[in-house]
Amino acid sequence: MGRRPAGRGWRGAPVAVRPRPHGARPADRGARRLRGGGGAGADPVGRSGAVSRHLGRASRRAGRRAPGDRGPARGGRPRRRAGGHTSRGFGRTGSRGAETPLRGAGRTLRRPGDRAGKGDCERGWWWRVSRDRQIVAGLDLGSTKTCAVIAEVVGELPRLPLAKILGVGLAKNAGVRRGMVRDIDETSRSIVAAMRDAERMAGVKVQAVTCGIAGEHVSARTSPGVVAVSADEITPDDVARVNEVARAVSLGRDHELLHDIPQEYVVDQQRGISDPVGMTGTRLEVEMYLVTVQSTAAQNLRRSVERARYRPAELVLEPLAASYAVLTEDEKELGVALVEVGGGSTGVAIFHEGKIRHLASLKFAGAHVTSDLVAGLGVTQADAERLKEKDGIAYQPLVDASEMINLPSTPSQGARQASRELLSHIIHQRMDEIFQLVQREFERAGYGGGRLPAGVVLTGGTAHLPGTVELAREAFALPVRAGTPEQGISGLVDSVQAPRYAVPVGLVLYAARRLAHGGVPSGALVKSGRGGGGGGGGVERWFGPLKRWLQDFF
Q1: Contact status, residue 147 vs residue 345, Cβ threshold 8 Å
Q2: CB 228 within 8 A of CB 237
Q3: In the chain, count of helices (H) and strands (E)?
Q4: Does the pLDDT value for residue 464 go beyond 50?
Q5: pLDDT grade for 134, boundaries at 50, 70 and 90
Q6: Which residue has the higher pLDDT, 499 or 56?
Q7: Would you say the C-alpha torsion 543, 549, 553, 554 has a positive or negative sign?
Q8: Are 512 and 164 in contact (CB under 8 A)?
Q9: 20 to 30 Å CA-CA from 198: which of 205, 285, 343, 440?
Q10: For residue 207, how far is the Cα from the chain centroid?
């Protein structure tokens, strides 16, 4: 007779096996592979090691658990915990019975493009929904760059909402052309990059963003409305009814309403009334300015934002948004034109008597300046953009004719140089053409011949080129200034002191006003835990402006 194996009787009859001490080596391979809560050879239901091993293998092949088998249902080795013990059930205890979290339990949700790193939970931080802070975010999707601004709504609410700038993000964007999304994936990646930088600086995670929109797919028109007053005194219900009548026009199947802006109310032939509530009359009229956008352009923009895992709270016309950041109430009352020279389009908005009177979009903008440099200097698109940003001057008389610049070249071209005067001449000619088209738009709207006493305010990425203001003064024969965000903001004001930030800052101011008057909160997440309640950006807060300057320079 041979030696009886441990854990089994003759002819497979089960026998009792003495439990091994902790740390002792199991008697056979069957006992070593057991997954249960008893000793080395004991089975949870009293089976022998051979029977348990056989049933365990069969159940793994069949893809289901055997009765009493607490191992994983899928094939493969059981996952081991610290100290060499395999997981039991859901595996909540370690080698000494201490509570250990499941793998991934402390992992934070990452968006596409986020870099991997140590989780915030490991540093003693976690994210919670902000209930005492009202956070808003503005997103400007340009043809060359995406700019994001995050702010906190402060001030005397709801009378005077202000925006405290918390974070700013800037990223390259090649998915938008002339205000329309051409590549949703590229646009969403740019949104993620810009929002990630802004969120890191602000110390918050934003769930909803207010987006700017502009381009030739945006149009505007005036729509009248007339109702009979229900009583001797005009009530808010009467105003709501006449506004609804003015909005009830056919927009077409391919357009949707973006803004409805009352120009003026008329009570019994008395014009120029801004708020008719409480007045006496029998007939109430309104002139409503309706801004519409092509539905496909709006849907593609929303889809790009949603692909980046954000919720598009509202779409706002970019010149209208920029007016909140750079125009004063006196300028709007006297008569002023806001000209946004972007990368893909040039937007024109005329304000008079405190109301927006005319909107237009031109297809010529900064991208055409870059294309002219490509043709005139024989450089690539990227090199032309860098030359424009680094050495470009929009007003040729400001350039020294003897100054030379090095041109990027291919190995076959060799080292090349060009006069800075030639570079400035190319930029000057195209920018002057753009301003002449804007001047024609002034005349078409009835505001030519000096009917804009407050002059022109320039915004947009192309407007920051040196000499742009001087060239515009010569073209318009009006007072001209560069529009840098200054109205109603605090916090990191130095980070947004450039014309390119007029739209995103205006978007957060627009969102702040809507939120102060009963809008839906954004539901932002703020940091909590060790060190207090978040708002910090650490190094990003102080070195963010330097980082963006280096991005622009190179």
Answers
A1: no
A2: no
A3: 13, 22
A4: yes
A5: confident
A6: 499
A7: positive
A8: no
A9: 343
A10: 10
Q: What is the pLDDT of residue 66?
A: 45
Tell me which amino acid residue 298 is.
A
Strand pairing report for 208-213 and 311-317: parallel
Which residue did the predictor score with more confidence, 486 or 373?
A: 373
Tell me how far apart the alpha carbons of residues 29 and 358 are, in angstroms, rounded to a whole number. Answer: 85
Average pLDDT, integer, range 12-16:
50
Q: Please tell me whether the peptide bond between 466 and the residue prior to it is cis, using omega within 30 degrees of 0.
A: no
Mean pLDDT of the chain: 79
How many Å apart are CA 338 and CA 351, to the nearest integer? 8
- Is residue 323 classed as helix, strand or coil in its secondary structure? helix
Question: Is it the case that residue 196 has pLDDT exceeding 60?
Answer: yes
d(CA 235, CA 233): 6
Report the share of the chain in percent with pLDDT over 90: 54
Q: Can you tell me the mean pLDDT for 93-106?
A: 41
* Side-chain half-sphere CA neighbours of 392 within 13 A: 26
Cα(467)–Cα(393) distance, integer angstroms: 6
Could you tell me what percentage of the chain is helix, strand and coil, using 3-state DSSP and rounding each to the nearest 5? 35, 25, 40
Buried b (16+ CB within 10 A) or exposed e, 470-503: ebbbebbebebebbbbebbbebbeebbebbbbbb
Residue 96 pLDDT class (50, 70, 90 cuts) = very low
The Cβ-side half-sphere exposure at 49, using a 13 Å CA radius, reads: 24
Please give the Cα distance from 545 to 54 (Å, whole number). 67
Q: Where are the alpha helices (DSSP H) in 213-339?
A: 236-247, 295-307, 318-326, 329-334
Percent of the chain with pLDDT over 70: 69
Instruction: Give every CB contact of residue 49 below 8 A, 6+ residues apart in sequence.
Output: 7, 8, 17, 28, 30, 31, 34, 41, 43
Q: Which amino acid is at 376?
A: G
**pLDDT for 114 beyond 70:** no
Distance CA 203, CA 120 (A): 12
